[in-house]
């Protein structure tokens, strides 16, 4: 998580993630939720923080116990930094993935179709096109994500 924090620029952010400090329990950090039984990070909710980053740092995909990931209303680099093509498939326990208005561009990764536990997926964007999805990828996405509500 600290490596992920290092990827953010905070000049226009609502928060600086001040609670994210080495030597402290990450389960008490802003936007972080943990399983009390295992201690693993299961929720990362950075929605609306106004964070800026040059793309989504691949270190995010090391959080393999995540069930909820919400990166909405942040700026991950506009059209110059595409959504990572690999990595989402490592988040196999995800039940909720929310990326609306996060200014991510590029093709929606096929790895999202491997997240068979997803019940909620939000890729919407009000501020221009979000991502491109090939028809074959869309068919795979829909076929594999049969738990979506």
Automatic annotation (TrEMBL):
Residues 1-35 form the Leucine-rich repeat-containing N-terminal plant-type domain. Keywords: Glycoprotein, Leucine-rich repeat, Membrane, Repeat, Signal, Transmembrane, Transmembrane helix. It comes from the Eukaryota. Gene3D superfamilies: Ribonuclease Inhibitor (3.80.10.10). Its main location: membrane. It is a single-pass type I membrane protein. It is found in: Membrane. The keyword Membrane applies. InterPro entries: Leu-rich_rpt, LRR_dom_sf, LRR_N_plant-typ, RLP23-like. One of its GO terms (cellular component) is membrane. This is Leucine-rich repeat-containing N-terminal plant-type domain-containing protein.
